[in-house]
Amino acid sequence: MRLINPTYFQIGVSWGAHESLIYAPAISYLKELPPDRFKDLGISLGDMRISVGLENAEDLIQDLAGTLEQMES
User: Fold this and answer.
1) What is the pLDDT of residues 55-68, one digit of tens each?
2) Per residue in 21-57, pLDDT tens?
3) What are phi and psi of 70, to 5 degrees?
4) Domain assignment present for 1
């Protein structure tokens, strides 16, 4: 699963800035843990972490909805 051109969400981890971000935690855990440990931690390879910034909430909702529609097609 991958994101296709989100408009407002940047891909990356949060360092305390104001922009909205989306990130797959499994990406960093794959470097540190074997995949069988994910279940113990409650992490799935398809999980996404979303950090909401200062953008308009309706814009962010539409951005996620549009991205999900692209992924389904």
Assistant:
1) 999 999 999 999 88
2) 988 887 777 778 887 887 788 888 788 889 999 999 9
3) -65, -40
4) no
More confidently predicted of 45 and 8: 8
CATH number at residue 40: 3.90.1150.10
Asked, for residue 49, whether it belongs to a domain, the answer is yes
Cα 30 from Cα 22, distance rounded (Å): 17
For 59, the token pair is 């814009």
Comparing CA positions, the residue from 43, 15, 46 lying closest to residue 29 is: 43
Write out the E strands in 1-73. Answer: 10-11, 21-23, 49-51
C-alpha to C-alpha distance for 30 and 47, rounded to whole angstroms: 13
Domain containing residue 61: 10-72
Q: What is the value of pTM for the model shown?
A: 0.71
What is the dihedral angle through the alpha carbons of 39, 42, 48, 54, rounded to the nearest 10 degrees?
A: -160
